[in-house]
Amino acid sequence: MVPVVLLLRAYMGFAKEYEFLTEIGIEPRNSGAFVNGVWKGSGSVVSSVNPANNKTIAEVVEASSQDYEEGIKACYEASKIWMQLPAPKRGEIVRQIGDALRTKLQYLGRLLSLEMGKILPEGIGEVQEVIDMCDFAVGLSRQLNGSVVPSERPNHMMLEMWNPLGVVGVITAFNFPCAVLGAPTTPLITIAMTKLVAEVLEKNSLPTAIFTSFCGGAEIGQAISKDTRIPLVSFTGSSKVGQMVQQTVSERFGKCLLELSGNNALIVMDDADIQLAVRSVLFAAVGTAGQRCTTCRRLLVHEKIYDSVVDKLLEAYKQVKVGDPLENGTLLGPLHTKASRENFEKGIKVIKSQGGKILTGGSVIESEGNFVQPTIVEISPSADVVKEELFGPVLYVLKFKDFKEAVEINNSVPQGLSSSIFTRSHELIFKWIGPQGSDCGIVNVNIPTNGAEIGGAFGGEKGTGGGREAGSDSWKHTINYGSELPLAQGISFGN
């Protein structure tokens, strides 16, 4: 009877609520390695799970070490062809990738929410972010300018130019599985995205190995870190694992781009617009169930307005709808995994043991999924737990006396990603964004800590790793700098 059951399952395909996945190339069972234009996988079989009910969405056969070696060899050879294309031509390919994503925006956004757990508007918004990034890259492809530098030697000139670095290895986390592609627990969005990119490459008669992807775990990540064919490794994840990746890559003199932990503070001064601040804190602390690296985790409130701000925030938390991320009106979806829910419970116990007072929330919600209550904790800024990143919807509220103390508290943690201040004082704003203000890579004024714009460089300092991605000059991470000093024989300079 077993073969009959398996055949029946194959014939039936997805349950009705998952039928849309066929529109983006996802099947009940998928190969998880795109190797030299062929989908394969000879590693472990894993299930992609819906965190709202912990039921399997689809299965994926992960990449093995052999799949990795075959794939990276083809990718390395294909990179030589890609690098020879003029930058505007590469930009044209990226433009087509953005257009391909546009045609599947709703499907991809829905899959992202289904697999990761963030609410549907966030899922669609994340895919749109990738589309916007493609547009940004298209413009950048015509602006990778070098310069002519004056030489101190007669009849010489110096040319500064930028060349492609080569293969870039990307090891990512689950919370932005489309914008930062490739996390182990969100393989389906990786597969769907890869198929769209591969179609564009094929249409342009380019090697599909230019975009090689592996669904896999730590074994694949370690292989990328050690591989001398990969001059730059980009890692998104915890500070602990990021430090290990950096050490491994540095041992072979490779480059590392790290986007690690955040422990972000939002300061509310006594002259702030309280209503604006409260709405911003709610969005920053509860969005993505507190699973953004830019989530607001510490709320610093001036002692004169402390009670007022906390009361208004508690009232706002009562209105948060927790539930299925695909349903209209849901503001807080599930945590991504059962392990995340368990870490939330452990974290609450530690918070209480260090004197934290739970003002609201603090419990898991009994259900099939990984739902927890949005939580506000009153605690001392000197508590050890405040220095750590609890990846969930837990907000610490802390009281301060003046701006100087607020900055000291903001800067007192090991991480340094995002920060924000709410004030009407121009003097304080300029102090906040200056060298005596926030020590974070992202410094906001009168807006939340979470989110970022693609036109500006994204990244943080200290335990956040120092990496920069997206706009500004961050593209220089993935470009090889070269300076030429040719003797200008046969060239006449002046009369």
From TrEMBL:
Q: Which PANTHER family match?
A: ALPHA-AMINOADIPIC SEMIALDEHYDE DEHYDROGENASE (PTHR43521)
Q: Which UniProt keywords apply?
A: NAD, Oxidoreductase
Q: How does it assemble?
A: Homotetramer.
Q: Specify the protein name.
A: aldehyde dehydrogenase (NAD(+))
Q: Which CDD domains match?
A: ALDH_F7_AASADH
Q: Which organism is it from?
A: Lactuca sativa
> Per the record, what are the reactions this protein catalyses?
an aldehyde + NAD(+) + H2O = a carboxylate + NADH + 2 H(+)
Q: Does the keyword NAD apply?
A: yes
